[in-house]
Write a structure and sequence with these properties.
The chain has about 525 residues and is an alpha+beta fold. The chain has helices spanning about 1-10, 30-40, 50-110, 110-130, 130-135, 140-160, 170-250, 265-325, 330-360, 370-390, 410-425, 480-490, and strands at about 365-370, 390-395, 405, 430-435, 445-450, 490-500, 500-510. The chain folds into four domains: about 1-50 and about 240-295, no CATH class; about 80-210, Four Helix Bundle (Hemerythrin (Met), subunit A) (Up-down Bundle); about 315-360; about 365-510, Heat Shock Protein 90, CATH 3.30.565.10. The two termini are about 35 Å apart.
């Protein structure tokens, strides 16, 4: 039973929030669970977040590179086709000039050398731009163009070989003329068709090149959405999980962090470190808790020894003097010394009773209790002390009696302790005020206020500790016992105080549902 009060004592010091309840499953860091969690965190395949980020941005870079290369290739193809069209236009122009000179020859017998010269210029154009032409239309079509040109040039050479004024058969000339016109027309038609085809290709490629930036932007947007979602899943979600872990640890839940993914990354290392931290933290807390318990036991033992040694010493001294002087003492003196022994024995018995109340108090019997009846009966018990110490009472019963849920005798002990402490805090007399407040829906607040010496701020946090007292007499168990009773009732005690102005103890007790 004493350990229960020690745990309650630790909760008043703020340790209950940081020390997990050993009776609650899952709050204590189990060694086997820790080893299993650490093993699961370590043995998974590694996939670092850094690697994922590098892969994501590499994908983005590759996308930009592909778009840029595609644009450059398309630009290069367009340039080739434009240059090809310029070449064929020049070639077509030369052929058309040659054909005009050809017609002049057949009409006026002139310009044949000019026709041959222009034909040679056309051949030079095809020879000079042969690679570019081959890259666009292929070697087969280039050979076809050269064959037409060669035949055309051969026929012009044949005409040149005829002597002026020769009587060549008109049929032969007509045949040569027809073949020249055929090859000339084929060369012009073929050049025009190739130029038209490449022009359409250039227009199509130009139209496509206008759409490439839009397509790239759409793909880039999708990639950015994916990368954003990816980074959120890989970084933000684990961060939120670890925030929850830290809040759970702050509440005293030391359940190990177990793997949440199929692979390990930087957050896995963080989880391993946090698990190790929880293990060390729990060990340190248990060591600290044990130290506090031993200190509490030491204080308890020291208080008991001090409170019992004084009356026992007085009993021993009085008994020894009674034995030594028994024959010489009168009956009145003997009776007086026996009374002293009885008084000291009662003092020791009172200490033991307080200690039993402190450590062995049974569970309260919760029943609806009238606040007016509780305060009224307690005032009757403290009335004599108030008269002897010139204490004035300020208490007006509430118009509507409220009921609290509790044990009447134990709550009476609480308020009697508070009233006696208030009376003792006013050695020169003063005012004891009692107020009942029912504004809260769940709790009734009963305030006990005095106009006494007050409690120093340096010790106000220790007044509920066992055997702590600011008075020269007393066991220091009254307020500690009262705190334990109120705590078992599901309530709390708060205190405010100012030196030489007085103190107020506010007792919060749960309301009864019965009216």
């Amino acid at each position: 039973m004493m350990m229960n009060h020690e745990e309650d004592f630790f909760s008043r010091s703020g340790l209950r929030e940081s020390v997990p309840d050993r009776s609650t499953p899952g709050l204590v860091l189990d060694e086997a669970a820790l080893k299993e969690a650490q093993k699961g965190l370590v043995e998974r395949p590694t996939m670092n977040i850094r690697t994922k980020i590098i892969m994501g941005f590499s994908l983005l870079f590759i996308l930009c590179a592909v778009a840029s290369i595609t644009y450059l290739i398309m630009g290069g193809q367009v340039d080739k086709k434009i240059r090809f069209m310029e070449t064929l236009n020049n070639y077509s122009f030369e052929i058309q000039q040659a054909r005009r000179y050809e017609k002049n020859f057949f009409l006026y017998k002139t310009n044949l050398p000019d026709a041959l010269e222009i034909t040679q210029n056309a051949r030079e154009i095809l020879k000079k731009e042969g690679k570019n032409i081959t890259a666009v239309i292929g070697q087969e079509k280039l050979n076809l163009m050269l064959s037409h040109l060669s035949r055309y040039e051969s026929l012009l050479g044949t005409l040149r070989g005829l002597m002026p004024g020769s009587t060549e058969n008109p049929a032969t000339l007509a045949k040569i003329e027809g073949e020249l016109r055929q090859h000339g027309a084929e060369m012009i038609f073929m050049a025009a068709n190739l130029v038209e085809k490449e022009r359409k290709d250039v227009e199509a490629m130009t139209q496509w090149s206008r759409q490439v930036p839009l397509i790239f932007l759409a793909i880039l947007f999708l990639v950015m959405v994916y990368l954003t979602r990816f980074l959120a899943q890989q970084i933000l979600l684990p961060l939120n999980r670890f925030v929850d872990y830290t809040l759970r640890i702050a509440q005293g839940n030391y359940t190990p962090i177990t793997p949440a993914k199929k692979y390990k990354d930087e957050f896995s290392r963080l989880a391993i470190a946090i698990n190790l931290m929880m293990d060390q933290l729990q060990k340190n807390q248990e060591q600290y808790l044990q130290t506090r318990k031993m200190a509490s036991i030491g204080t308890l033992t020291s208080g008991i020894a001090h409170e019992l040694n004084n009356p026992l010493n007085n009993i021993c001294i009085t008994t020894e003097s009674l034995i030594d002087e028994l024959e010489n003492l009168t009956d009145n003196e003997k009776r007086k010394r026996l009374q002293d022994i009885y008084t000291q024995a009662e003092r020791a018995s009172g200490t033991v009773r307080n200690l039993l109340d402190f450590t062995r108090m049974g569970p309260p019997a919760f029943v609806p209790v009238s606040t007016q009846e509780l305060i009224g009966s307690t005032l009757k018990l403290a009335g004599h002390e108030m008269e002897l110490n010139n204490i004035k009472l300020q208490y007006t019963p509430e118009d509507r009696d409220s009921k609290i849920l509790g044990d009447f005798s134990q709550l009476q002990q609480v308020f009697l302790n508070l009233m006696i402490n208030a009376i003792q805090a006013m050695p020169q007399g003063g005012i004891l005020s009692l107020r009942v407040n029912n504004e809260d829906e769940q709790f009734t607040r009963i305030e006990v206020t005095d106009t006494g010496v007050g409690i120093p701020r340096a010790v106000i946090e220790q007044i509920f500790d066992p055997f702590f007292t600011t008075k020269g007499n007393g066991t220091g168990l009254g307020l500690s016992t009262s705190y334990s009773i109120v705590k078992k009732h599901g309530g709390k005690i708060l205190v405010t105080s100012q030196i030489n102005q007085g103190s107020t103890f506010s007792v919060y007790l749960p309301k009864s549902k019965e009216r």
